[in-house]
Amino acid sequence: MEAQLPLNTEGKPIQCKAAVCRDSGEPLVIEDVVVAPPMSGEARIRIICTSLCHSDLTFWKAKGPRGLFPRILGHEAVGVVESVGEDVSEVKKGDMVIPVFMAECLECVDCKSKKSNLCSNVPFRMSGFMPRHESSRFTDLSGETIHHFLFVSSFSQYTVVDVVHLTKISDPSSLPPNRACLLSCGVSTGVGAAWKTAEVEAGSTVAIFGLGSIGLAVAEGARLCGAAKIIGVDLNPQKFEIGKKFGLTDFVNPGECGDKPVSQVIKEMTDGGADYCFECVGMASLVHEAYASCRKGWGKTIVVGVDQLGSNLTFSSGEVLTSGKCIMGSLFGGLKPKSHIPILLKRYIDKELQLDDFVTHEMELEDINRAFDLLQAGQCLRCVIWMDKKF
Ligand code: NAD
Ligand code: ZN
Which of 75, 97, 212, 239 would give a disulfide with 234, using CB separation of 3.0 to 4.6 Å? Predict the structure, then answer.
């Protein structure tokens, strides 16, 4: 991929197009923004492709403490480094990089442990600013500050990302940008949830609640781990046909279960409960259903979906005690971005991991609101947005 970066922008503000979310649920506005040069520990990135994830929809609609506007959303992307701030040696101008909402500082106890991807030096949190300097690099043409999103903000032709959130792709020719962006959030999250968080074993049974890109990537991950039965649960019956490409073997439509709870249907299909259940929608009631669908003794329920703020789970302590089941959360599929994205990339190059079928639509930045409509209506998996069109 040729990086056509404009000359002599280093150290200067760049004016470019971005899709700005001005208020909760309002169509994004394509407007000129000013992107300040990177500060120490940061890199300014020219975004090549970005794709839309359900988490963007959640924060686009958010009101209250999660609704921070104006804001530049987008967190699934790939780009090229335009310039770097002081003390940055890990990436340089022209490098192809994948930004990820999770950091990997490589130094803290968690980054050094095999058991966790929750960096302690730069912990996951909701913020409208850069992680290291607690300030924004975006302003609009009237000088008003625009907030960041998940430390990525990729719905802009240029963005600034802290180097702890960047993974360098050493051989850019191995991965087209409209596939690379999928490794930045959705596909990595789903595959990682099966591979790293659940550690799905060959021959096991899996149930996945919600068959968007995340749920289907869980299926793909479970398939790669050798699962024998992969049951998808979705209200949209079209998802079964689509899901077969990613290894789904069975399908349950909650609307067609009559009086039986979905968990009862899954227990019957798996002779007592699935070994691994994944919630990939973001609803407490589905987490309970997933937990109820798990096998006693060793069943694991993995929470992947992002629920409304303040939502709670309630379990009977007696049931937790006697069932022996476990429930775990999984951010970015338990993956450490810098360590594990290259492994997924290798599996894509080796034609083991599928990325192509996740991309159902491709469009230009000016059509981004159509991508929001398609994802809300359940009519797409991933819409890839190409950012480099000259306006
Ligand atoms: P999506 O909108 O593409 O897919 C959601 C799917 O859930 C759709 O197929 C829909 O039909 C189905 N669904 C909705 N309600 C349902 C119900 N009651 N029962 C069964 N199925 C139902 O979303 P996505 O991009 O795949 O994201 C899925 C979830 O994962 C979101 O909550 C998103 O925020 C979250 N997410 C989490 C992480 C993480 O790190 N943990 C990363 C990315 C996304
Ligand atoms: Zn995401």
Answer: 239
Ligand 1 centroid, distance to 37 Cα (angstroms): 35
Contact indicator for 327, 301 with CB cutoff of 8 Å: yes
Atom of ligand 1 nearest to the CA of 193: 41
User: Does the beta carbon of 281 sit less than 6 angstroms from any atom of ligand 1?
Assistant: yes
Q: What is the pLDDT of residue 8?
A: 83
Task: Establish whether residue 289 lines the binding site of ligand 1, counting it when its CB lies within 6 angstroms of any ligand atom.
Answer: no
Spatial contact of 240 and 256, defined as CB atoms under 8 Å apart: no
pLDDT of residue 140: 98
Query: In the structure encoding, which two tokens stand for residue 76, read together?
Result: 């699934």
Secondary structure of residue 328 in the 3-state scheme: strand
Residue 90: count of CB within 10 angstroms of its CB: 17
**Residue 337 Cβ contacting ligand 1 at under 6 Å:** no
Q: Is the CB of 340 under 6 A from ligand 1?
A: no
Which atom of ligand 1 is nearest the CA belonging to 285? 18
Report the separation in Å between the CA atom of 341 and the middle of ligand 2, taken as the mean of its atom positions.
Answer: 15
- Segment-wise mean pLDDT, segments of 10 residues, the chain, 391 residues: 65 97 97 98 98 96 91 98 97 97 97 96 95 97 97 98 97 92 98 98 98 98 98 96 96 94 97 98 97 98 95 94 97 98 96 96 96 95 88 44
